[in-house]
Amino acid sequence: MKTAASIALLCLLGSLSTSAGAGPSRNALVVGNNAYEHARALRNPENDAAAMALALRNLGFEVTYRSDADLKSMRGALREFIDRLPTKQEPDSVALVYFAGHGVQIDGKNYLIPVDAEMARDYEVADETLSMNSIMQGLESAGAGLNLLILDCCRNNPFSRSWRGSRSTSSSGLAMPKAAPQGMFVAFSTSPGDVAEDGEGDHSPYTGALLRHLPSPGKPFEEVFKAVGGEVAGETAGEQEPWFNSKFYGDFRFVEDGSVYPAPVSSPADAGIGKPWTNELGIEFLPVPGETGVLMARWETRMKDFRAFVEETGFRQDGGAHRFSVKEKPEGGYTTEWVHDPSASWASPGFNQGETHPVTCVSWNEARDFCRWLSKKEGRSYRLPRDREWSAAAGSGTFAWGDAWPPPPNAGNFWDLRAISNLPGDWNQSVIGGVSYEDGAERTASVASYSPNENGFYDLAGNVWEWIEETYDPAMNPPDALRENATLLESRDAEGNPYKTIRGGSWDNFARVDFRNDVRDYDEPNRRDDDYGFRIVLELE
Fold first, then answer.
1. Whole-angstrom Cα distance, residue 379 to residue 384?
2. Which residues of 72-100 are buried (b: 16+ CB within 10 A; e: fewer)?
């Protein structure tokens, strides 16, 4: 049961991230595009980008992250990223851009392709893509001492079969940059003009090597890229040879000599601040402040996690789910509703879902089934979070991101300008906080896309509502929330069955009350909605 307001329509990494007065800034823009609408879809860019975003955050970068981004989202993310960079020269600051996806070259110029690009002739490319030159110019306009541009996108021109009348388009790889400003380091996943592999595993050969070598303590960053190049060339028997060009004459290390990268620990009992433990599914867990004997997942359960459950158990989901919908009102204008769709499911919620997006359309009962399966699979004890554990993980602020309202940039995935971009009618007044907030996601976003909260957890506000272990009781809510929303006074359905608790708000919420750390909502335990998901906790022995 969503509140009336919603129906009417990232201290782990915080201590690692560099902020004003805490030393040289580190900022990154990370984009990974898989689901191309008019070109061959790719397998790994979203996985690559999600892993890179997490790795860079662990290395102290403030990250702007987008997955399956259209042109507007890519341009908006670049603008948001450039605006965060120092405006005056800061020799020790670092700006990094990473892109994984399709790329193409025209007349020696490189273009990064958004998921909505539709091109049949070379003269259409500039209008449909984000040029490498525009990224370099944006970096040059800011004050970072080192600008790193990493492109894992040297794949065949995805539009070559339908290309007409073109003499200047290369069908293989990207072009060598003709000029780069001082302080610029450009890295390609293969030599200019050659083609890189998407990869058969979870990552491309290049990004997989990057993830292994970036946290090398004391190693100059150029040596990191040399090591990556050597590994990739060896792994591909010389078929793919990474390339880089540098106009940077200073010194930079991703991890200083003697520093410790927060690598996952081998035993959950050893997890602590700065030391997440990772289970067999690749989910990272952290201790819950003030709660002994329990670790909570840092992010919501992903599509790929639930898919593993489905494939191993033969789980079948029948009966459909409720999907977000817009309808026209008799008196004019539009309103929102959740309509039952017999064909909707966790695998097909009605919008694109990558493997690192949170699973949706999962009921409380099905979330519990997932926990029982994973407990048996690993020989551990997994369950849904208890209410007090969720509250402790959410932090000391009014909201998971702190006390500010409306939420600051990169706080999470909410009802924003992107969410309303394809709706009929005028929805601008409904955007969260009544401001021009844009998080880059029309529906769900990949987990860990935004800043972690003070305790190192992601998406405890926004993205998807999260099922909680307990039965709902109105007394769980503060009196002012009950006065503001009378529906929160209910505790049972029409048949007298108790509700289960959901917390945190989702991509379709905009009201302040929905995101408060002290407010709970509820729904039936067998209800599936396209904005309902869950995260898990691990009980220690």
1. 17
2. ebbebbbebbbebbbeeebeebbbbbbbb
Q: Do 503 and 521 meet the contact criterion of CB atoms below 8 Å apart?
A: yes
The angle at the Cα of 354, spanning 351 to 355, to the nearest 5 degrees, equals 135
Question: Which tokens in the block code for residue 162?
Answer: 């339908």
Q: Answer whether residue 104 is part of any domain.
A: yes
- Indicate if 232 and 332 belong to the same structural domain: no
Q: Which residue has the tokens 């919501």?
A: 300
Q: 346 and 484 share a domain?
A: yes
Domain region containing 96: 16-246
**pLDDT over 80 at 174, yes or no:** no
Rounded to the nearest 10°, the torsion over CA 438, 446, 155, 76 is 10
Distance (Å, whole) CA 108 – CA 119: 18
* Cis bond upstream, residue 406 (ω within 30): yes
> What are the helix (H) ranges across 258-302?
none
Q: Pairing mode, if any, of strands 26-32 and 62-67?
A: parallel
Report pLDDT digits (tens) over 347-402: 999 999 989 999 999 999 999 999 999 999 999 999 999 999 999 999 999 999 99
* Burial group, residue 375, by CB count within 10 angstroms (0-12, 13-18, 19+): middle
Residues 305 and 234 both lie in one domain = no
Residue 258: what pLDDT?
A: 81
Looking up tokens 């403030």, which residue turns up? 62
Do 163 and 31 reside in the same domain of the chain? yes
Domain check: are 68 and 165 in the same one?
yes
- Does residue 275 sit within a domain? no
Which secondary-structure segment (H or E) carries 503? strand 500-503
Nearest to 449 by CA among 24, 36, 79, 69: 69
CB 447 within 8 A of CB 466: no
Distance separating the N- and C-terminal Cα atoms of the chain: 35
Decide if 253 is inside a domain: no
Q: Are 129 and 90 in contact (CB under 8 A)?
A: no
Residue 175: count of CB within 10 angstroms of its CB: 20
What CATH number does the domain containing 402 carry? 3.90.1580.10
Separation between Cα atoms, residue 488 and residue 38, nearest integer Å? 45
**DSSP assigned state of 130:** E
Are 355 and 467 part of one and the same domain? yes
The per-residue pLDDT for range 99-150, each reduced to its tens digit, is 999 988 887 888 999 999 988 788 888 899 999 999 999 999 999 999 999 9
What CATH code is carried by the domain that includes residue 46?
3.40.50.1460
Total tally of structural domains belonging to the chain: 2
User: Is 421 a member of any domain?
Assistant: yes
Among candidate residues 219, 246, 273, the one where a domain is terminated: 246
